[in-house]
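--- STAGE predict ---
source: upstream dedup step, 1 unique chain passed
mode: sequence only
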Amino acid sequence: MEKNQKIFWGWYIVGGAFLVMGMNYGSRYCFGVFLKPMAMEFGMSRSVISLAAAINMLVYSFCAIFVGRMLDRIAPRWIITTGALIAACGYIMTGFVKTPLGLYVSYGLMVGLGAAGMGVVACSSSVSKWFIKKRGLAVGIASMGISLGTVMLTPLAGYIAGTFNWRFGLMALSFIILMMGVFVSQTLMRKTNPEAYGLLPDGDKTTYSHQLPETKSVYSVSARTLFKDSRFWTLAICQGLAVMISMSVFVHQVAYATDMGIDKMAAAASLAAISFTGFIGQFLFGWMTDRIKDPKYVSFTGITFMLAGTTLMLNVQSVFNLYVCALVYGFGYGSLAPVLPLLIADRFGRHVLGSIYGLLTFFIGVGGAIGPVLGGFIYDRFGSYHYLWLINIFVLSCIAVAILTLKKGKQYV
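--- STAGE serialize ---
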């Protein structure tokens, strides 16, 4: 790419990240559509089936550590291409499983491993390295792919599962992942960071007064150093709990709605409703971080909306009530993906973003793994999801308070 190219390459990275995250998370969030049919076919409890989603999150989060470190060294296209190939194989295998063990290996292990290569660590970190002044907007736009993918794929998966069966739905997802993942990564995600190509962040022609001199291409910070930093643990705990809640919603909301007598297609569409306002939220919250001095206040606002939506979930009695809850909750949920990389870059520095994001994602994934299992356990124990929503309300209240304590501190570059 030439220096005088009219379109800054960072925007191609944004477009690629948008598409990759859309198909990756859209496919993974379809699991809730298949939960009840799987439980009925296997004759197993929902907690047993939900364990596959928990294993998926644990594998995803563990592998994210290595994805983050690789991303600080090589172009994202090879990481994403490898992830797409593995995930596609995992979805195909899941379509043929006959036992819960097979489900744990195919969806839990294989899809989780592949998803890590196409996740927010690879995509949002790549975007963040190309922007400083417009970072919030760029990451916000890229993160909108998560919601758009869910809006498009969850109703599609619900339709296929209802018309044919859940196995055929998973085969369709494998085809989407394979075709889109390889093509997008190889065409749009080819470059590492602007400095490696003689460019500046945001496509500027002159350096920023606050920009650090570019004396080396690889930056690192040790895990031991991060573990001594209270800011790291604040982010790890808050984001881990927030993802725990979001995963419990995505895996169990459809089953909860059908238990309340709501039609299966309408229930599946409620996930699309979450993603619809999440789509709006991801843009607005990203945009807000470029205009509000400290991104922690943007994060607090998002958590507050999630809290309001979860509170409304306690009294769902109709499709209208369900969609109101989903729309309010979804707008707040839209803050999670775009704000975290901005908090990391703001607190720790842009050049170590991949490594820190990857390590944080491990702890976040542990929380995400708890969510589906917790929801399944509560349903099996009490015969309803009422206590799950109460727990989520309490946890979100604690997160909202804790995120306001996040201090600035030093950067590691």
